[in-house]
Design goal:
Family: Belongs to the 'GDSL' lipolytic enzyme family.
Strand order of the largest sheet: 2-1-3-4-5-10
Pfam families: Lipase_GDSL
Distance between the termini: 46 Å
Structural class: alpha/beta
CATH architecture: 3-Layer(aba) Sandwich
Enzyme class: hydrolase
Number of domains: 1
Helix content: 40-55%
Signal peptide: 1-27
CATH topology: Rossmann fold
Order of helices and strands: HEHHHEHHEHHEHHEHEEEEHEH
Protein name: Triacylglycerol lipase
Length: 351
Amino acid sequence: MEFRAQKRALLVIYVAVLSILTTSTNGGTIVPIFIFGDSTMDVGTNNHVANCSSTANHPYNGIDYPGSQATGRYSNGLNTADSIVQLLGGYDLSPLPYLSLVEDGSNFTRGIFNGVNFASGGAGLGKLTVQQFATVQGNITALLGKSKGDRLLQKSMYIFSVGSNDIMEYYFTYPRIMTHEQFVINLTDTYAIHLKNLYSMGARKFGILSIPPIGCCPAARFAAPNGTCVNELNDLARACHASFESLTKNMSCTLEGFKYSLANTYNMTMSVITQKFGFKDVVSACCADNSPFGLSECLKGVHLCKYRDDYLFWDKFHPTQKAAKLAATVVVSSQDPAFVSPINFGSLRKA
């Protein structure tokens, strides 16, 4: 009887998975999207980390999210992960956090076929949770079989947005144990290890957002003379983009089937800072204290701007929902190689 019950349970899961894989909102088959990164892509991972010091599951975060709910997103509403997957199609919101699926064990197998978000606030390349994907890959392969599982993983898309925390930690740590050049090389080598590990587990389509001009975020401006951008931080971000570009070009030549799209979030963000694009404030935080630019955490009781869409920055580090949607539109659809190359995320999704 127990064996029959197990068979019935597996059949139910298999039928559910097939329904997911054959369901579409645009006439094609929806395949999973897997997201890796830091707080710009976190949709609640840190809610499930015991004694985590970096969380966003409190007001005023989420004030413009449906129901004004603080979900763990470092945003007034949707974040970059949500906006990108919406535009790519088949998703209303980002896939669920890996740790939430683990906690709800009964829904784990079905959930992973909808994609998984592994991003975590505070994460850097050195702490990226790529190893968690091995569990997902193992479950997909076990259910579909190696051949079908491999095909699904190869069709899936893998999105990365990480590196800002690494630069911040390096920049504000004294004494420094390496030069800027050595730091960029070390960071790129770490990126290469993660990408190759995922490639070995079946990943083929990599959408990468490089590091924005973090020297222009409110937290950096606060400490700079006259509130200017910190050029040294921005130089590191630009150097990392150039290095990531060389890395991905090389991997596309040496790894069979490796496809990528690299978004230049530095150029994207600087174009907004210099040309505004409908934003009225591109230097200070919408949710923070009343100090110049806003330095405090975004917590209930601090100053909250009335018109969130006027601001580029939600808090001292993160973009507003409007800014995230604008960035996602560029990443997914732009044909400008100054912003995304060699193809955009939309083309990579279809490749």
